[in-house]
Design brief:
Rossmann fold, TIR domain-containing protein, 23 helices, ten-stranded parallel beta sheet, NB-ARC, globular, repeat, alpha/beta, Helicase, Ruva Protein, domain 3
């Protein structure tokens, strides 16, 4: 957090102005900035008047126009931030007017700012309109001054700003609670397996600020939640939770809350909040309103011109676009972004004429303009593949698949982000606004109606009946078979024989494939099959081009054909409780980058050849509770960056681990049998491990920034020279008997 004190002579210093530019750049990366206007009028900063205007004029003699323009933008930006003001200003409505002695003022500012400095801050766009009013209305709806338990449903059309309003409220008021969490995109991130259990895991992980909640089922998760929530005032925000099936669960959560706690959910409609009202007496709803004409024009102009008002000659056309968008922030942002940098008036007029031919209320067609204007077919293919297959998936997994298909993702994905068609969340996963994803699905549907079908979704009996009726089946590149609602849970291998160019395959609730594989899957790059019933890979299957094998919770006992997957980059065997061993031939997977054997509880060892995987950067074997030893030559895995051995039975680490120069994260939490660490060591997290001491050489880690030793109850002593670690800024509380 930055507290910036701006006085009358602030702009005289080029150093101060450069620092301000850097601080505001940091703000965009989620750091908070709080201005203190020390007897200056923010209007003078915004419009470069008074002493600020004079100083900027003098700087023109010594500094470049580009540098001065950055200073002007920074001064204008900080003038619009909420902060503290030591003098009245008619047009400054966001700041707190400070009275009393300067010492009292400093004390008040510190007391207000300090609780916010240590809490999680959610990212918000730099340009928001009407948000302060929305936050205060949410505050009133939640009756924040009362000491009872309340819930609120924030509702409205997709793209209207429900998530933004919830985030802004969270950022402003979460410090008033003992514990708080904000779960984004709940509906998307809870798909597959047990959505309710997955949601509970996310909730516990956020509340505990831990990587993994380590609970086994719904009831144990609820018991853990009761321990946390029964004695603490909590704020829980669940974003994008439309399913009515969650209502009973939400009621149970609210009944665990202690006095003063609050729950917020965001949803497209009123169905879920209304269901909660049946069980809970103090549930309100807040409908997010569309922006008014003034704020709409400002938002559109910010994205089209990077300023609050459009130039005169563009004003009339800008107002036409704003009227068409109907106050929907997402549409305003996307329309403005599509016109940014376009100076030809003919282009603007043609763009609006194109809009006029579309129905006014058809938001999907507004969104599709950004897709239609993609200049490259590979960008469109990447977008549709993400819509079809990769929303919520890790970007690294998808990028490797796209590379293998010659789609050039390093060039295409940034374009999709720039066009507001795609975002990357803080966990490095693809996310997409619901309206945009719906638009993409509609494109896929129309594609199958009017031309060769490239991506196909089949459910129920369609999996056995629809394919023979399709023409040009050799054009199909993506296939999802979902038998969730079908009584017949099996599909026939003959289906795949007719799909020679299949690249992406996902099987949902499919209990088996009948028949033999002959020439199938020769072009397949990615297969996702949760709960695969195979005990081993079929001998006749051909997967030479496979990049991503996603088969968690499957019945594999061994993977003896794994060496026949020479292109494999990502292997996910999470929760394969029958997997007894990995084959020695795994050392032949020279391109393997990610290996996940999390919760493979019967796995007792890793094969020695695994140390030959020089490209492996991520290895997760957490929860392998029968895994006692790591290969002695672990240090040969030169590319390893993240190693998770939490909740395993390992008793010691091989000395060669010191050779992992690229290792940035090592998790040993829950390793109760681990008694000591090698003398030469790197970064680590050791939550609840059995460590008794740290080696003296640990103090030589002069660049270590963060050390977490939570609940290491056996830890007796720390190295004498720990004070040499001058970069250590985060010291986790250690519950132990340290002398």
């Amino acid at each position: 957090m930055f507290v910036v004190v701006i006085s009358e002579n602030y702009a005289r210093s080029s150093w101060c102005l450069d620092e301000l530019v850097e601080i505001l750049s940091s703000k965009r990366k989620r750091n908070q900035v709080v201005p203190v206007f020390y007897y200056v009028n923010p209007s003078d900063l915004r419009h470069h008047k008074g002493s600020f205007g004079v100083a900027l004029e003098k700087h023109k003699k010594r500094h470049s126009a580009n540098r001065i323009e950055k200073w002007k933008l920074a001064l204008a930006e900080i003038a619009d931030l909420s902060g503290y003001h030591l003098e009245d200003a008619e047009d400054f409505v966001f700041s707190i007017k400070m009275n009393g002695s300067e010492a009292d003022i400093v004390r008040n500012i510190v007391e207000n700012v300090l609780p916010q400095a240590s809490r999680k801050v959610l990212h918000l766009d730099t340009c928001l309109f009407g948000i302060d009013l929305a936050v205060e209305e949410i505050y009133q709806q939640l009756s924040m001054e009362s000491n009872d338990v309340r819930a609120l449903g924030i509702c409205g059309l997709g793209g209207v700003g429900k998530t933004t309003a919830a985030k802004a409220f969270y950022n402003k008021y979460s410090h008033k609670f003992d514990v708080s969490c904000f779960l984004e995109n709940v509906k998307q991130n809870s798909q597959g397996g047990s959505p309710l259990f997955h949601l509970l895991q996310q909730l516990l992980t956020e509340l505990l600020r831990a990587k993994d909640s380590k609970v086994r089922d719904v009831e144990s998760a609820l018991r853990k939640l009761r321990e946390i929530l029964s004695s603490k005032k909590a704020l829980v925000v669940l974003d994008d939770l439309d399913q009515s099936s969650y209502s009973e669960f939400l009621v149970r959560i609210c009944k665990l809350f202690s006095d003063g706690s609050r729950m917020i959910i965001t949803a497209r409609d009123l169905n879920l909040p209304n269901q909660l009202k049946v069980e809970l007496s103090k549930v309100n709803t807040y409908m997010v309103r569309h922006l008014n004409e003034i704020n709409s024009l400002e938002l559109f102009s910010y994205h089209a011109f990077k300023k609050s008002k459009p130039p005169g000659k563009y004003l009339a056309l800008s107002e036409s676009f704003v009227t068409y968008a109907g106050g929907l922030p997402l549409a305003l942002k996307m329309l403005g972004s599509s016109l940014c940098g376009r100076t030809n008036m003919s282009f603007w007029k043609a763009k609006f004429q194109k809009l006029e031919k579309m129905p006014m209320n058809d938001i999907q067609k507004i969104l599709q303009m950004s897709y239609d204007e993609l200049e490259d077919d590979t960008e469109k293919a990447i977008f549709l593949d993400i819509v079809f297959f990769f929303v919520g998936k890790n970007i690294d997994e998808a990028v490797d698949v796209f590379k293998s298909c010659d789609l050039f993702p390093e060039a295409g994905i940034p374009i999709l982000i720039e066009r507001c068609l795609l975002t990357i969340d803080r966990n490095n996963r693809f996310q997409m606004h619901n309206l945009i994803q719906d638009m993409g699905r509609n494109i896929i549907f129309e594609e199958s109606k009017h031309g060769p079908c490239r991506r196909l979704y089949l459910n129920q009996e369609e999996a056995c009946q629809a394919l023979p009726n399709l023409g040009e089946m050799d054009k199909i590149e993506g296939l999802i078979i979902d038998l969730t609602m079908s009584t017949n849970k099996y599909c026939n291998a003959e289906i795949f024989e007719r799909l020679p160019n299949l690249r992406l395959l996902k099987l949902v609730d499919v209990h088996g494939i009948k028949g033999n594989f002959k020439t199938s899957f020769r072009e397949l790059r990615c297969i996702s099959w949760h709960g695969c019933p195979w005990m081993h890979l079929p001998s006749a299957i051909h997967l030479q081009k496979l990049v991503f094998l996603d088969m968690p919770f499957s019945r594999f006992e061994t993977l003896w054909k794994i060496a026949e997957l020479p292109s494999l980059h990502h292997l996910n065997l999470d929760g394969c409780i029958h997997l007894k061993e990995l084959p020695e031939s795994i050392g032949h997977l020279t391109k393997l980058d990610h290996l996940n054997v999390n919760d493979c509880v019967t796995l007792k060892r890793l094969p020695k050849p695994i140390t030959q995987l020089a490209t492996l950067s991520f290895l997760d074997m957490s929860g392998c509770r029968n895994l006692k030893l790591l290969p002695q030559q672990l240090g040969d895995m030169k590319g390893l960056q993240r190693l998770d051995a939490s909740c395993t039975a390992i008793e010691q680490l091989p000395d060669s681990i010191a050779h992992l120069k690229k290792l940035v994260h090592l998790d040993l939490s829950g390793c109760e049998k681990l008694r000591k660490l090698p003398e030469q060591f790197g970064n680590m997290e050791a939550y609840g491990s059995g460590l008794e001491q740290l080696p003296d050489s640990f103090s030589d880690l002069l660049n270590l920034v963060s050390l977490h030793l939570f609940n290491c109850s056996q830890l007796k002593r720390l190295p004498e020279q720990l004070g040499k670690m001058q970069c250590l800024s985060s010291w986790g509380r250690c519950i132990s008997y340290i002398n």
